[in-house]
């Protein structure tokens, strides 16, 4: 299957999940993350889940990060140029839901991309080589291209990997790790 077909298949798989299943699977993913050797870093970028797309509930990971006193960075999308601007999450950060249903900071303290140590990446599907399929707009590939070379790129998936994708693009950036409810894949 090509990316377009896989994108559709995994959207359907996600929409078949109940709210309870999403919560349980999200907790399992957060628990899997605890076993990784990533917790000595400072700045952690995390997306906030789009509920209508039945994304992984990242609030459990957010609780871990806050419990470990980490600097949490959340993105704000610019749909004019398909880029992300990253802001420090503080007690004063006002979260709004944009016109696409994405929870994001209204404003705040901007954090340069080269300061970020770990990025938790949303995806629809991934393969056994660490390639991922997102929504197709390239936001995260553009963002990751501006991060340090040693940034740790962690995908989060409800589902196990596909064998391989047959229509990769030269700008696609591979994951270092992908965490599912049952397994941690390292690439």
Automatic annotation (TrEMBL):
Q: Which InterPro entries match?
A: FTHF_cligase, FTHF_cligase-like_sf, NagB/RpiA_transferase-like
Catalysed reactions listed for this entry: (6S)-5-formyl-5,6,7,8-tetrahydrofolate + ATP = (6R)-5,10-methenyltetrahydrofolate + ADP + phosphate
Q: What is its EC number?
A: 6.3.3.2
Q: What class of enzyme is it?
A: ligase
**What would be one Pfam family of this protein?**
5-FTHF_cyc-lig
Q: Which cofactor does it need?
A: Mg(2+)
Recall the GO molecular function terms of this protein's record. Answer: 5-formyltetrahydrofolate cyclo-ligase activity
Keywords, ordered alphabetically: ATP-binding, Ligase, Magnesium, Metal-binding, Nucleotide-binding
Say which family it is in.
Belongs to the 5-formyltetrahydrofolate cyclo-ligase family.
Please report the name of this protein according to its UniProt entry: 5-formyltetrahydrofolate cyclo-ligase
């Amino acid at each position: 299957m090509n990316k377009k077909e896989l994108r559709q298949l995994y959207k359907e798989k996600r929409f078949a999940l109940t709210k309870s299943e999403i919560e349980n699977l999200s907790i399992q993913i957060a628990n899997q993350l605890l076993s990784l050797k990533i917790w000595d870093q400072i700045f952690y970028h995390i997306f906030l889940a789009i509920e209508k797309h039945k994304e992984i509930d990242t609030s459990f990971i957010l609780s871990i990060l806050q419990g470990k006193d980490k600097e949490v960075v959340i993105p704000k999308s610019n749909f004019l140029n398909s880029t992300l601007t990253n802001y420090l999450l503080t007690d004063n950060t006002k979260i709004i839901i944009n016109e696409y249903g994405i929870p994001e900071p209204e404003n705040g303290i901007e954090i340069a991309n080269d300061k970020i140590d770990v990025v938790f990446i949303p995806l629809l599907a991934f393969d056994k080589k660490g390639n991922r399929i997102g929504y197709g707009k390239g936001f995260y590939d553009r963002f990751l291209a501006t991060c340090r070379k040693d940034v740790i790129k962690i995908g989060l998936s409800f589902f196990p990997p596909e064998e391989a994708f047959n229509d990769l693009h030269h700008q696609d950036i591979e994951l270092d790790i992908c965490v599912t409810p049952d397994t941690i894949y390292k690439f």
